[in-house]
Design goal:
The complex is a heterodimer of chains A (about 160) and B (about 575). Chain A is an alpha+beta fold. Helix content of chain A is about 30%, strand content about 40%. Chain A has 4 helices and 9 strands, in the order βαββαββαββαββ. In chain A, strands 5, 6, 7, 8 and 9 form a 5-stranded antiparallel beta sheet that branches. Chain A has a 4-stranded antiparallel beta sheet with strand order 2-3-1-4, with helices on one face. In chain A, strand 2 and strand 3 form a beta hairpin. The longest helix of chain A is centred in the middle third of the chain and has 13 residues. Chain B is α/β, with parallel strands linked by helices. Chain B contains 23 helices and 20 strands. In chain B, the strands form 4 sheets. Chain B has a 6-stranded parallel beta sheet, sandwiched between helices. In chain B, helix 9 crosses helix 14 and helix 16 crosses helix 22. The chains are: A alpha+beta (about 160), B alpha/beta (about 575). The interface between A and B is medium-sized, with 20 and 19 residues. Bound molecules: thiamine diphosphate (TPP) and magnesium ion (MG).
């Protein structure tokens, strides 16, 4: 099963490689990993999306906790939470499809962040389903480039277990 | 050692390090110098309180520090230079990491400005050792150094111990700062759990009281936590037999009537049998290594498992666990014993008698044994004689291979910290430098490395260290002319195709001459009748001694659970002999 794990770490030199090295060294999957500073500049937060059965996920949680620079590990999958990811897509639609691209982008609440005579770059934010749906619709339009941030996630304020 | 005097004014990074080491109570450092670490070595030139042991290889330094730590419980300290000096420590660090040994390793590094430039003797040792240290850092700021060193010692020795490495760029050891010794350590991201959950412990107590066929499996954690007394109390209180992992040998007296000896690949018949038949395993300070469990799917099929360990990642890593207890073994056992004494009524009595009777029958059926020969020295005989002569009171280190297994099987360890061996990593070349480290920590003890003719050659240069520092370690080489353990596998599983395992150690080297060349003493025994006298002679000599025991090359370690088989599918010596006879008959 897929899990989204939030990891609070000391914002120190080498911590990212410690975490990444844990995953590669022990053969765990990483689907995506995103890192950024928190409000406290001494602390960073990582959002890791990983897959594995219950045993593996349990080990991942424990192994992360065991790393000296890890302050806290929360498996968000067990909590109600909000997940978001952002992608930037550069499409090069044929003349007759341009209007279509713009209207799909609008339906998905995308924003055109750059355009050239032949291309649009669209920013789109959402959960995985929304992004996948959007990408599917853009495919026939001619995707030139595509980047995604990887997921970030946060627990809902009422931390009721699912 | 007096209380360190106050330090005022700015001092150099190197001076800070020395001051920290003294405050940590360090007396011995194992090391090897080189360019970028000279700032520290210079201070050691005339320091009266800190003694540096110059080994002949950095790997030797780390193993020596490791054994120093294992035999005392205090962190071992290593000091080496950058680049090759640092990379030479890796095997030693990985060895310590696998066996949870507290070490603080200081490596020199090129000046901060040059890092990343492929400077002369630059190696990214922090990157290289990330996965085999408990923690490691590049010290970048001399102002933080004292705190970082204090934390390094704390991290190394607390919780589940392990090696910590501090990489020291040359400009950091020459840079100056005020010495500030943090009185308290507060690492917000690190707080080991020492107290086990009372509720879980109580549950465990009930299971133990109910069990008909309980077995305790004691691991290295019992020794690290110094829980031998509590372990013995638990076993005796509940009439529960105790088997030990290689790392756990000595945690419970090997000669105790409840001892089953070692379990696992080369464990005793009765230990493995008991585990497989058990209805309750009480696993204490161990981590279910594959050498212990055999084929995991068939491991202890009838048993509930209580698992006590300070490291939560050890629990439910390899085997299912019914009652997990995260905590320090000693503290958990104290509480457990209390529950068992007070709240739980003694229900075991008669039931246990039947179980112990069954175990006694297994002990009778297949005791740990070998076939003595009056013509050729059996390696087991050598170990047995060493045991008899030393009355089990020596510190034994081992190399890796058959020698290690025989040292585990035929020497009975009644006390903890008497067997120092590389369990997790299985590092050939560990035993000799380890003997040196242990001898330094225990000058009055007899320290014997039970060695293989292959392994001893992996750190044989340390003979110089032993001679020069007058450390009278004894090295009992079970010389079978082969990488014996590998040869055993080839004999049993590769149709006797002895690919690259013959060492020609009947001539090369001549261990006796080699010992002489280093200024040590070399002795040799070629007949069983010479074994005992030569051991006695060696012990009398107040110098390092190599004893070359020319042994039967064909001898194998039994019982043996083939890799990937369940614990109860053991091979035995006689079974194989029968098979040989059959083969001959067919021919
Ligand atoms: C550094 C290292 N290299 C290789 C091995 C694999 N290995 C395990 S036992 C063994 C043979 C050891 O030979 P020897 O020291 O003569 O011991 P014996 O088994 O003959 O007693 C080898 C090569 C190892 N454990 N460590
Ligand atoms: Mg050999």
């Amino acid at each position: 099963m897929r899990h989204t794990i939030s990891v609070l770490v000391e914002n120190k030199f080498g911590v990212l490689s410690r975490v990444a090295g844990l995953f590669s060294g022990r053969g765990y999957n990483i689907e995506s990993l995103s890192v950024g500073e928190t409000i406290d500049p001494n602390i960073s937060i990582m959002t890791i999306v990983t897959t594995g059965d219950d045993w593996v996920i349990e080990q991942i949680n424990k192994q992360l906790n065991k790393l000296i620079d890890v302050i806290k590990v929360v498996d968000l999958t067990e909590l109600h939470h909000v997940e978001r990811e952002m992608v930037l897509i550069k499409v090069a639609p044929k003349q007759e499809n341009k209007a279509e691209v713009l209207s799909i982008a609008e339906i998905f609440r995308g924003r055109i962040v750059d355009s050239s005579p032949n291309t649009y770059t669209i920013e789109i934010t959402g959960d995985e389903k929304k992004i996948e749906a959007f990408v599917e619709l853009m495919k026939p339009m001619g995707i030139k480039e595509f980047v995604r941030t990887g997921k970030v996630a946060i627990a809902r304020e009422i931390l009721k277990k699912k | 050692m007096g209380i360190p005097k106050k330090v005022s004014g700015k001092i150099s990074g190197a001076e800070i390090i020395i001051e920290c080491l003294k405050r940590e109570g360090v007396k011995h450092i194992f090391g090897y110098p080189g360019g970028v670490i000279l700032n520290i070595f210079d201070l050691l030139y005339d320091d009266k309180d800190l003694k540096l042991i110059l080994t002949r290889h950095e790997q030797g330094a780390v193993h020596a520090a490791d054994a120093y730590a294992r035999s005392t419980g205090k962190p071992g300290v290593v000091l080496v230079t950058s680049g090759p000096g640092a990379t030479n420590t890796v095997t030693g660090i990985a060895t310590a990491s696998m066996d949870s040994v507290p070490l603080v390793v200081f490596t020199g590094q090129v000046p901060t400005m040059l890092i990343g430039n492929d400077a002369f003797q630059e190696a990214d040792i922090v990157g290289i050792t990330r996965s085999c240290t408990k923690y490691n850092i590049l010290a970048k700021d001399v102002n933080q150094l004292a705190r970082q060193i204090r934390e390094a010692f704390y991290i190394a020795a607390s919780g589940r111990p392990g090696p910590v490495l501090i990489d020291l760029p040359k400009d950091v050891t020459s840079g100056k700062a005020e010495f500030v010794w943090p009185e308290k350590i507060d690492i917000r991201s690190y707080s080991p759990t020492y107290e086990g959950s009372k509720w879980m412990i109580e549950k465990a107590a009930h299971e133990i009281a109910k069990a008909k066929k309980p077995v305790i499996i004691a691991g290295g954690g019992c020794i690290i936590s110094e829980a031998s007394a509590e372990l013995k109390e638990l076993a005796e209180l509940t009439d529960t037999p105790v088997t030990m992992t290689l790392m756990g040998l000595g945690a419970f007296p090997g000669t105790h009537s409840l001892s089953l000896g070692m379990l696992g690949m080369h464990g005793t018949y009765y230990a493995n049998k008991s585990v497989q038949e058990s209805d309750l395993l009480i696993a204490i300070g161990m981590r279910f290594d594959d050498r212990v469990t055999g084929k995991i799917e068939g491991f202890a099929p009838h048993a509930k498992i209580v698992h006590i360990d300070i490291d939560p990642t050890s629990i439910r890593k390899n085997v299912r666990v019914d009652i997990p207890i995260v905590g320090d073994v000693k503290r958990v056992l104290k509480v457990l014993n209390k529950f068992l004494k007070g709240e739980v009524k003694e229900q075991w009595g008669e039931v246990r008698k039947a179980w112990l009777k069954q175990i006694a029958a297994w002990k009778n059926e297949r005791p740990l044994t070998y076939t003595y020969s009056p013509d050729v020295i059996k390696p087991q005989y050598v170990v047995e004689k060493i045991y008899e002569i030393t009355k089990g009171d020596a510190i034994i280190t081992t190399e890796v291979g058959q020698n290690q297994m025989w040292a585990a099987q035929f020497y009975k360890y009644d006390k903890p910290k008497r067997l120092l061996t590389s369990g997790g990593l299985g590092t050939m070349g560990y035993g000799f430098p380890a003997a040196i480290g242990a001898q330094l920590a225990h000058p009055d003890k007899l320290v014997i490395d039970i060695a293989g003719d292959g392994s001893i050659q992996m750190n044989i240069q340390e003979l110089a260290t032993a001679v020069i520092y007058k450390l009278p370690v004894k090295v009992a080489i079970l010389n079978n002319r082969y990488l014996g353990m590998v040869r055993q596998w080839q004999e049993l599983f590769y149709q006797e195709r002895y690919s690259h395992v013959y060492l020609e150690t009947e001539t090369t080297p001549d261990f006796v001459e080699l010992a002489h060349a280093y200024g040590a003493v070399g002795l040799r025994a070629t007949k069983p009748s010479e074994v005992e006298p030569v051991i006695r002679e060696a012990i009398k000599i107040k110098k390092p001694v190599f004893i070359d025991f020319v042994c039967d090359w064909k001898e194998k370690v039994y019982p043996m659970v083939p890799a990937g088989a369940t614990l109860d599918s053991m091979l035995f010596e006689e079974k194989e002999k029968k098979a040989e006879k059959k083969l001959k008959a067919v021919k």
